[in-house]
Amino acid sequence: MLCLSEQDLLFFVMFFVGVCDLSIKMELSSIKDAFDRVAKKQKLSSSKSQEVVDQVGREIEQALAAIQSSRDLSSPADQKSVLTELKFKINAIGPFQQLEGSNKEVNGSIIKYQRPLEKLLNPDISKAYRNVDFDTRIINQIIANHFYRQGLFDLGDSLVNEAGEPDATALRSQFLEMHQIIGAMREKNLQPALTWVSANREKLDHIGSNLELKIHRLQFVEVLQNGTRADALKYARTYLAPFASLNKDEFPKLMGCLLYAGRLESSPYSELMSPIHWEMTTEELARQFCTLLGQSYENPLSVAVAAGVEGLPTLLKLANVMAAKKQEWQEMKQLPVPVELGKEFQFHSIFVCPVSRDQGSEENPPMLLPCLHVLCKQSIMKLSKNSTRTFKCPYCPAEATVTHCRQLYF
């Protein structure tokens, strides 16, 4: 097990940050220099090419003018002499040799430009790989469910059959139903969606969903636009009336639409015909379908891969720094530097002690000091010499004892 003292850890973090910052600046600088060289060569090549083309063009124009204006060149022999002279002048210019030379210079600078790009954008990611003993069955189930969630049922079935993991099909039928409903909604067929919300009404009410009203609203607009006013009124009385008392703002607007049956697009309520309502309702159904399944709407495998890609540059820098210090980062219980991810990857609250940089846990929970600063329990115990004396808060002049600190719960 690799152990680092506080001084070593502080040095390591500062060294890591400094190396990362300097390395990034150097890489960006080298890429910019290489790009500037390519741009300069390309500009010179373009200018040179245009100059050669203009030279050849002028010689051709002069030859044509000589043939057309001179009366002494009526014989084929005289015309041939003009063309022979033109050929001699063009050979003297050497357009192909000049163009080839400038193109070679541009291609050479492009090849040199590719090298820093490949180094920065196509690194050896195996350096950031950490040996972990994965449960093969769980991995197979995750991948199979990924395919089922995406609607790739044939691909998921093939994986299950080849891997011999029949348990991986536990969610297949549910995701199949979800995709059938979504597919029907994209064809503006709401009957499967209405059947599903009706069967799951109690569960949807429990999570505060108004999905059933939104689907009935879509159907009402379709009836209003494609049917008669009487059909729309009958549908409203049958399916929308039960929601009237809970949606006092929505219901009058829908009733106002009855005045524009068959011409809703030219009414004050034309926005109800926008395709965005279908898209948003379809997405909401998929979200709530997954919620009732106890599954996240975002694909777990896609989220894991995206988070890994975002954190990969930091891990690669860490691997390079550790290699320079001849230390093995894979043996650490936790990384000595934070891997910053976007808010889309934050699914629950966490606390990292500002003193020790350790993440809070059941064994090392966050503790609230009387001054309202928060430290982890182990940091407080260290500062108080195992509760034997008062200690000063690292962030303000206030003093406290362990008994004055309270545990926080996230």
From TrEMBL:
Keywords: Cytoplasm, Metal-binding, Signal, Zinc, Zinc-finger
RING-Gid-type zinc finger span: 353-396
UniProt-recorded Gene Ontology molecular function terms: ubiquitin protein ligase activity; zinc ion binding
Localization per record: Cytoplasm
Superkingdom per UniProt: Eukaryota
A single Gene Ontology CC term: cytoplasm
Annotated ranges, domain CTLH: 174-231
Residues of the RING-Gid-type domain: 353-396
Signal peptide: 1-22
SMART domains, per the entry: CRA, CTLH, RING
Predominant cellular place of this UniProt entry's protein: cytoplasm
GO terms for biological process, alphabetical: proteasome-mediated ubiquitin-dependent protein catabolic process
SUPFAM superfamilies with a match to the protein in the record: RING/U-box
PANTHER family per record: GH10162P (PTHR12170:SF3), MACROPHAGE ERYTHROBLAST ATTACHER-RELATED (PTHR12170)
Name listed for the protein in its UniProt record: RING-Gid-type domain-containing protein
UniProt organism field: Vigna angularis var. angularis
Gene from which the chain derives: Vigan.05G027700
